[in-house]
Amino acid sequence: MRRLKIFLDTNVLMRLDGLKDDPELEDFKNRLEISRAKLSVTHIQVDEKHLDELKNFQDKLRKVLGSLRKKGIHIQLEPTKEMVAGLVRVGLVKLGYDEMHKFDDELRKEIDKCEKARGKTKELLNIARDTNIAVSALGHDYFITTDYCLFVSWVNALKKHRVHLERFKIPKIIYAHRSTEAVARQILALVC
Predict the structure, then answer these.
(1) Which domain holds residue 18?
(2) Phi then psi for 94, rounded to 5 degrees?
(3) pLDDT tens for residues 143-163?
(4) For an engineered disulfide with 88, which of 49, 70, 93, 176 has Cβ 3.0 to 4.6 Å away?
């Protein structure tokens, strides 16, 4: 049986930490183990800093990864798929291809357009992080996000650049609502 590869966006990772030590957590861990599904993130998610209400975001994410490990939920830290100066760590990146960069550029434009249409602005650095995380999902079976604009932008950018990404396995993107239960149910729906 081939191992299912699921790539998690930052907020999905944070929501998983909300699983309590109870029968639901045990069921979640058992079903993940039986399915042999692999949950993955990039170092960018551990490194990223937000200028919002979450202080010490990096420390919080490291604690989340440690907490999940203690709960028996293992998250694989993977290299990013493309080099973005000032964003990725040397040694934790695979060099991308021109086709991937075109998709990345389109995805950035789509995220910016979506955020502006919703009356919000997102810093260009945050958009760059989001796109690098999303592009790093290439090669996985699924990419789960709770970010509406990232979800819609992925779908729109993919419509324009699917042909350019033929050499990559394109994951199906899944939008999950922002609750621990919704995220856990969505993952379990994929592994069963």
Answers:
(1) 5-191
(2) -105, 135
(3) 999 999 999 999 999 988 776
(4) 93
